[in-house]
Every structure is written in C-alpha cells, then in structure tokens.
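Fill in residues.
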C-alpha cells in the first residue's frame, strides 16, 4: 500500500496515465458528468470530500499548465473563486455552458462531494521537464 500521496487506487492509476495537454475536470456533486471520460467518483456525502481538499491533493500530484472555470463562480461561490484565483493567476473564465462543453473533451473526471454551486475546474496537464 502507498504510504503517501493519493491512496485511491482508481485515481492514482488514472493520474499516472495522463499526458501533456490532457484535461482533468474536478467537479462538484451537481455537475453533469459527460459520457466518455474516465470517472473517479470520490463523493461520500454532501461536502465530503470538499472541492478544496480534492484540488489540493491533485495539485500535489499533477503539473498543471492551465485551468478553466465558469465565470458564474465569482458571484455564486466566492470562496471557490478565490481558491482558484489563488492557485491559477491566469485562470480562464467561460460560461458554465461552455465549461460543460469543454468537459466532454476531458480525459478524466474527478467528482468531489462538494455541495456548493460552480465548484468546478477543468485542468490542462503540463509536463515536469
């Protein structure tokens, strides 16, 4: 058994398969999940695990070269907006409908137990060299 990092075997394996440019959607419990991408559902109950906890764990494991979120997050979920702005100074904001369209091209979807609206971000993987 792994001693550190992400212990969920489905998530750990999915992350190891990602390459440069691949998309990872980190989403709240209410985000429609598109057909196609691999899905790792971490939701245990409302709020568990939180969007912030999952994002923190993923960022410890991934190189991210870009991120996209719904512009509605600024009004509907200021704390998640502040979290994303702090992590991604160049955060791209699009409409929620556009984010759902872009999510269809993700390689991986990680569903959190977050129960606050618009706690969603599409990450674009980078490389470590």
């Amino acid at each position: 058994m792994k001693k550190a990092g992400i212990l969920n075997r489905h998530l750990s394996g999915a992350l190891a398969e990602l390459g440069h440019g691949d998309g990872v959607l980190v989403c709240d419990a209410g985000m429609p999940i598109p057909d196609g991408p691999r899905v790792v559902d971490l939701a245990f109950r409302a709020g568990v695990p939180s969007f912030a906890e999952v994002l923190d764990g993923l960022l410890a494991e991934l190189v991210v070269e870009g991120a996209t979120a719904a512009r509605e997050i600024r009004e509907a979920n200021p704390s998640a907006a502040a979290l994303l702005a702090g992590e991604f100074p160049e955060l791209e904001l699009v409409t929620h409908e556009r984010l759902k369209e872009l999510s269809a091209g993700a390689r991986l979807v990680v569903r959190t137990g977050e129960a606050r609206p618009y706690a969603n971000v599409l990450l674009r993987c980078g490389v470590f060299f």
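The mean pLDDT is 96.
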